[in-house]
Sequence to fold (397 residues):
Amino acid sequence: MNQVPFGFTPNDGPQPFDLSNMGAMLQQLGAMMQRAQSIPAGQIDWDTVRQTARQAIAASPDPSVVDAERERVRAANELAQLWLDGITDFAAPTLASAAWSRSEWLEATFDLWKPIVEPVAKSMQRSVGESTSMQMPEGVPAELAAMLTPMLQMAAQMSTVMVASQVGQALGSLATEAWSASDIGLPMNKDGVTALVTSNTHAWAGSLELDVRDVETHLAVREAAAQRLFAATPWLRTRLQDAIAEYAAGVTVDTERLRELVADIDVSDPDALQAAMQGGAFEVPLSPGQTAALARVESLLTLIEGWVDHITTIAIGDRIGTSIAIREALRRRRAAGGPSEKTFQHLIGLELRPKKLREASSFWASLDQAKRDSVWTHPDFLPSVDDLENPESFVTP
Fold:
C-alpha cells in the first residue's frame, strides 16, 4: 500500500488521525525544541554530543584498562622514544604514557574535536536558519499542517540538537576503532600524552592474527613520531584547522531537498525526524574556495602521514619481524578509511585521511635527515602534490 507524507494511509473515505503516533512525534519535537532553546544561536550543544557519544560507546563492551596493559603500553612507548632518538632532528617533547579505554579516549580527545567540528556544524545551522520558510507539501491533512508548520519553521533551532546528536554518534563510532590519539592525522590530545586504546589495538591485532605486543609497539612508534612532528611545528595544527574553517564557510543547505525529506517523515517512527535530517540536505556542489580548502587539508594530511610512515619504518627497521605486515595493514586502513571515518566524512564532508601515502613516504625517504626535517620549518617550504610525484625537482630550503 502506498504511503502519503507523514505516515497517513489513504482509503476510500475520511480516516481519523492516529493520536498515539502523533503524540509520540509531538513529544519528540517538544523535547528537541526545549533543549534547542537552551543553546545560544550558532553554538554547538556539546553536552548532547558527549552524552550521545557515551551512549554509543556503551552499546559495545568497553573494558577498563588493567595494570598489565598499562605496563605493556609504557614499555612500548619507552622503546618508541629510544628508537626515534637519532632518526629525526625533532626532539621528544615531555610526554607521559597512557593506556585508554574507549570512554577515556573520548574524554581525553573531546575538546580537540571542537575546532574541527564547530566550523562545519555552525555553517550547517546558519544555512538552515537562512533558508526560506518551509511550506507543507501537497497531500498533508490541513489539521496536521496547522500543527506542524510552526514547528518546522523552527528547523534552525532543532538543527542544534540534531547536529549534536550526529556528531556524538560519529565520535562514539570513532571511539570503538581508534588506536591512539593521532589516528586522523593530527594528535587529538593537548596534554602531550602518548596513548593507545588497548581494547581496540588488541582487537585489531587479533584481526591480523599478529602478536599484540608487536602491534602496540609499532603503533607506539607512530604515535611518538607524530607527537614529535607537531611539537616541533606549532603552526601545523592551526594550518589544518584554518583550512577546515575555510571549507565550512561555504556550507549551504539544499532547501528543496530539505522539503522533500520533511515530506517523507513517518510519525510512527520516533527517530524519523533525525533520520530525515541525515538524508542529504547538505550535499551540495563545492564552491571553488571549498575545493581549494579541501585540497590543502588533503595535502597536509598526506605530508604528515607520509613523514610519520617513513620515520616509523626506519626507526623500527628489522626490530619487529611482523612490521612489514603491520605497515601494509596500516596503509590499507588509512587509504580506504574505516566505518567511523566514513561516518565522519558524511557528517562534515571532509575526508580526514591522506590520498597519496606511498608517494609521500617515498618522497620523504628521498631526502636526507637534515633536509627532511628542515622542510617543516615553515609552511612555504612544504612540497606540492607534483613534488611527491617528482622528488628530484623539489628544492629544499
